[in-house]
Amino acid sequence: MKKLNLSINLLQLQGAVRATIKGEDCVVIRLAKSRAKPHQNGKVYLNLEAVTNKNGADDYGNTHFVCEPSTKEERESGAERLPIIGNGNEWSNENTSYQKPAETRTTRQISRAQPQDESEDDQSITW
């Protein structure tokens, strides 16, 4: 199964600001200035696009960038593009087999050169 691993800078979203609310650091999205759309069911939705980089992976292995989609009218009018809000890379766990991890415990044998007491034998200690 192929997946995209994405990292998004929330402050790059339209209408997003950093605020302190009741002493806690927060990111607030002002709906009137954002592209987030309140729905009649009470939820708020934000559409995002993950676009493949034209030149392949960048220096950090990112194969995609994330942005808010522009409208058809914005594209046709030549309006300024919205900022890139994140990057991501495609990965897959297809054709991989689980390999048992290498043995991590080691067994050491500690033997005494000369027993201090005749009743004491050489001993093996497992760690």
Give a description of the structure:
The protein is mostly beta strands and 127 residues long. The chain has one domain (2-92). It has one helix spanning 72-77; strands spanning 2-8, 16-21, 24-29, 37-38, 44-45, 49-52, 64-67, 84-92. A four-stranded antiparallel beta sheet has the order 1-8-7-6, with no helix packed on it. It has a two-stranded antiparallel sheet with strand order 2-3. Strand 2 and strand 3 (24-29) form a beta hairpin. The radius of gyration is 29 Å and the shape is globular.
Q: Any key phrases for this structure?
A:
127 residues, mainly beta, 4-stranded antiparallel beta sheet, two-stranded antiparallel ribbon
Order of helices and strands: EEEEEEEHE
Low-confidence stretches: 102-127
Largest sheet report: 4 strands, antiparallel
Percent of residues in β-strands: 25-35%
Count of folded domains: 1
Report the span from N to C terminus: 41 Å
* Average pLDDT number: 80
Gyration radius, rounded: 29 Å
Shape: globular
By secondary-structure content and strand pairing, the structural class works out as mainly beta
Got a strand count? 8
The quaternary state of the protein chains shown equals: single chain
Q: Give the count of helical stretches.
A: 1
Helix content: under 10%
Strand order of the largest sheet: 1-8-7-6
Question: Which SSEs are present, and which pair or pack?
Answer:
Layout (H helix, E strand, L loop, with lengths): L1 E7 L7 E6 L2 E6 L7 E2 L5 E2 L3 E4 L11 E4 L4 H6 L6 E9 L35
